[in-house]
Amino acid sequence: MSTVDIFVLAMAIMGVISAALVAFHPNILHAAVSLIFSLLSVAGLYGALGADFLAAAQLIIYVGGIIVVILFAVMMSENIYRSRFLDNGGKFLFPFTLSLVILFGLSKFIAATPWPRTEVVNRNLTTTVESIGLALVGPYAIVFQYVAIVLLSGLIGAVVVARPHHHEDEKRGA
Amino acid sequence: MPQSLAEFLDYYVANITGWNLPIALFGLLSAVIVILLFAMPLGGICTYIERKLAADFQERVGPNRVGPLGIFQFFADGVKMFLKEDTISKNADRMIFNLAPCLVTAGSLGAFAMIPFSKYVIGANLEIGVFFVMALGSLVSLGILLGAWSSDNKWSLLGGIRGAAQIVSYEIPLAIAVLSVVVVSGSMNMFKIVDVQGSGAGAHFWNIFHNPFVLINFFIYFVAALAECNRTPFDLPEAESELVSGFNTEFSGMRFGLYALAEFADIIMFSCIATALFLGGWHLPFFQIENIDLGLKIGDASLNPLIHTLIMTAVFLAKVAVLVFVVMWIRWTLPRLRVDQLMDLCWKYLIPIGFANLFLASLWMWIFSGKSMLQVLGSLLGVSA
Q: Do A76 and A143 have their domain in common?
């Protein structure tokens, strides 16, 4: 067992435990905090498999951006410290059956899919920055531009929602 | 290529004593060296210098009782922090309250691994160095927000929310300014970025003088870095006149100590990045440190790399010291901005100017095929630069 394997195993265990905490912790703020560790372990896995750029992107986007937004949302919600996992008394039979069916179906699919077992794993830990950059402006240029437009429209939407509505007040006053 | 600090230590220990110790041991040792012997004393000395400078700016004497010129004041402060009663307020969320200072410290100290202090030694030579430093910085905003929330205090919470909003916003101009350097040097590897800034033949001068747009982006970087460290004029998260002490109001003892250390570590770290990216790192103008040869040896190992490393680190830290001084100078000179002014500055001025500069810097690289200002000027005047 090499050092990389031990690291991958540790990250996987940390990811599973913190993901379980996210799902089952009665305190939603603590659940959000365990989500940090879940995402950190995913970043660690990317790093161990040689996807260095993806690991840093995972940190900067999910840990630095998404988690902050989630924390803000959690802090604005009610009953952070009192909500319990089984609070919606008895109404968990249907979701439970549904998720069992989904789990069964997914595991069937996973078992039946012939997974490609190529050695694409980057064990020499060479950088992936250059190939990602070339792919983004080469074969995936259109997708890249499309994502940029989606993000820009999101940004403009946020500005429209957040800007002060002085004009309407002036009209009402006049 | 540079060695990691662990390999460097291993090499010299093996040559001097003949022991073959596992490299992982030196990895741990180098982490301890960086944190205990570098970041913590430097943070402590910074608090002393800050007090002395503040005193100078306000025409006072400043700390003068502990040791000559009060120079051991920071030891006294450290002892005080260790011995202080460690209080946690009754309604605090203990788990998060304990976790938050650790996140802040991990974020700001972890980034030191990527700083190339000399040509031979670097903590970790990552290809995505700059990007990873930015990524680690995001842990700091989380630590501030969580610490503020968990202390169950309105002032803390207001400070924490301001801090998170401010850091998340100013990360954008910071990243844009850094990207313009990445465009100019064609790499995200901190070591390579510094290495190409040498003053040797064919290599261009420091990145800040590469073209006018990078020069402007340096100032954008500096303003954004000030905001990222929560320093005046952007110290809204801990605005004393409004919020008691902001996000760290409820923290005492070593937990507060970690926040204070992380603040100074952040200042030093951002100054280090500025030095490496814009100010030529360990390079001196018109002089190559690698050319020094004193011919000293220990056993079979030449001492030259060690001497060069020490000189280069000194040069690097001298540049960092100048930047840290400017940060402190600004703190004791400028008043604090309002929240709306802070956000205006970021979104209406720094980001558009930064983007324009990034675009124009890329255009410069394309038009002049990577030549620097001096080289272009030289070829116009018919002198070979």
A: no
Please list the residues that pair with B298 across neighbouring strands. B301
Same domain, A71 and A17: yes
Q: What distance in Å separates residue B187's CA from the closest CA in chain A?
A: 9
Cβ contacts of A39 on chain B, cutoff 8 Å: none
**DSSP SS3 for B118:** coil
- A49 lies in a domain? yes
The domain ranges of chain B are 3-381
* Contact residues for A45 (Cβ-Cβ < 8 A; gap 6+): A8, A11, A12, A15
Contacts of B64 (CB under 8 A, 6+ apart): B70
pLDDT in tens, chain B (385 residues): 566 777 777 777 777 777 766 666 777 777 777 777 777 788 788 888 888 888 888 888 888 888 788 788 888 888 888 888 877 888 777 888 888 888 888 888 888 888 888 777 777 777 788 888 888 887 888 888 888 888 888 888 888 888 888 888 888 899 899 988 888 888 888 888 888 777 554 456 788 888 888 889 999 999 999 888 888 788 877 777 777 777 878 787 778 888 888 888 888 888 989 998 888 888 877 777 777 767 666 666 667 777 778 888 888 889 898 999 998 888 888 888 888 888 888 888 999 999 999 999 899 888 887 777 777 777 788 765 4
Count how many domains chain A has.
2
Prediction pTM value? 0.83
Q: Which domain holds residue A1?
A: 1-85
Closest partner CB to B131 (pick from A56, A63, A67) = A56
Flag if A129 and B188 touch (Cβ within 8 Å).
Answer: yes
Q: Among B136, B117, B145, which Cα is nearest to B30's?
A: B117
Task: Looking at the structure, tell me whether residues A79 and A134 fall in a common domain.
Answer: no
